[in-house]
Amino acid sequence: MNSTPSTNKTQAAITGVFGYVPDYVLTNKELETMVDTNDEWIKSRTGISERRILKGKGMGTSHLATKAVKGLLEKTNTKPEEIDFLICATATPDMVFPATGNIVAHQAGLNCLSYDLMAACSGFLYALVTASQFIETGKYKKIVVVGADKMSSIVDYEDRQTCILFGDGAGAVLLEADTEGNGIVDSILRTDGAGATELYMKAGGSVHPASKETVENKEHYITQHGAVVFKHAVKNMADTSAELVEKNGLDGDSIDFLVPHQANLRIIDATARRLGLDPEKVLVNIEKYGNTTCATIPLCMRDFEHKFKKGDNLILAAFGGGFTWGAVYLKWAY
């Protein structure tokens, strides 16, 4: 069992969470009219029933993220000028530059340091751990971490392997200092660039700039080698979560909740089994939103916030393209 953390150590604690998803619901039944697939096949292999899609000309990831950040500030009674730093985790920035975080900070009325962090589906965890360092050192007092993606902007709706998986959404958390033992206790983050071309978007960067050919060849959409990605996701997400749990003296009984990246229900189940968790401790909302990439974990915390109690042990876990993966152990602060 985990020993009680020292109360004199400053840790970065989540003191508020908020999420936003667009109104438009893309169901499996509608996808059946677009590609050769069906509702039963999608649900049995992924756990997804529907996903949200951002409609509207000129609206990108910053629209989703700004909605989440503004909602977070209002919910926590935080004034925009109180925020010292904003990190936007995203795989679908509004544009190559400037950073979407800069745009979000401006639209939300913040006047603070802001930038993007890109680690595919692990982006929110990477951003959360990065932000925590600034809280722990005392550099900043209040930080917003927002994970947001408009995945529909890079999905080929003629590719049945990928179009069934992804949706649009955003989730944001407020981080503040805690000296009562709550907050982020430990984390393990890893990468393996050998998996770079197993899950990626080929064109649009400096190696393959946009051209008539890249557009015609559909190289600005997600390319995924599903079997390879699935194998690595199951192993690495489960292994890292188990390593973090063992390192901190936890077990299936002392973990209150697993908050996993919502990519595939089978990956989530494999991680839960590895940790020896009862099903009611595993938080899942993939059926409603699909894979919203950087938004899945904060949206999951938003949906299940009512279940959390101060001092609860939460394990957050993710796997993404790159390859990137990791796990975070935190004690809920409210």
UniProtKB/TrEMBL annotation:
Listed under catalytic activity are: malonyl-[ACP] + acetyl-CoA + H(+) = 3-oxobutanoyl-[ACP] + CO2 + CoA
Write down the EC number: 2.3.1.180
Where in or outside the cell it occurs: the entry states: Cytoplasm
Question: Assembly and interactions?
Answer: Homodimer.
Q: Which parts of the sequence belong to the Beta-ketoacyl-[acyl-carrier-protein] synthase III C-terminal domain?
A: 246-332
Gene3D superfamilies hit by this protein = 3.40.47.10
Q: Which GO terms describe its molecular function?
A: 3-oxoacyl-[acyl-carrier-protein] synthase activity; beta-ketoacyl-acyl-carrier-protein synthase III activity
Q: Name one GO biological process term.
A: fatty acid biosynthetic process
Q: Where is the Beta-ketoacyl-[acyl-carrier-protein] synthase III N-terminal domain?
A: 115-193
Q: Name one GO cellular component term.
A: cytoplasm
UniProt keywords (A-Z) are:
Acyltransferase, Cytoplasm, Fatty acid biosynthesis, Fatty acid metabolism, Lipid biosynthesis, Lipid metabolism, Multifunctional enzyme, Transferase
- What's this chain's function? Catalyzes the condensation reaction of fatty acid synthesis by the addition to an acyl acceptor of two carbons from malonyl-ACP. Catalyzes the first condensation reaction which initiates fatty acid synthesis and may therefore play a role in governing the total rate of fatty acid production. Possesses both acetoacetyl-ACP synthase and acetyl transacylase activities. Its substrate specificity determines the biosynthesis of branched-chain and/or straight-chain of fatty acids.
Entries under HAMAP family matching the protein: FabH
**Organism of provenance:** Bernardetia litoralis (strain ATCC 23117 / DSM 6794 / NBRC 15988 / NCIMB 1366 / Fx l1 / Sio-4)
Protein name per Swiss-Prot or TrEMBL: Beta-ketoacyl-[acyl-carrier-protein] synthase III
Q: Does the keyword Plastid apply?
A: no
Give the first-level EC class, as a single word: transferase
Q: Where is this region: ACP-binding?
A: 262-266
Q: Which catalytic residues are annotated?
A: C121, H261, N291
Quote the entry's note on domains.
Answer: The last Arg residue of the ACP-binding site is essential for the weak association between ACP/AcpP and FabH.
> Is the keyword Cytoplasm in the record?
yes
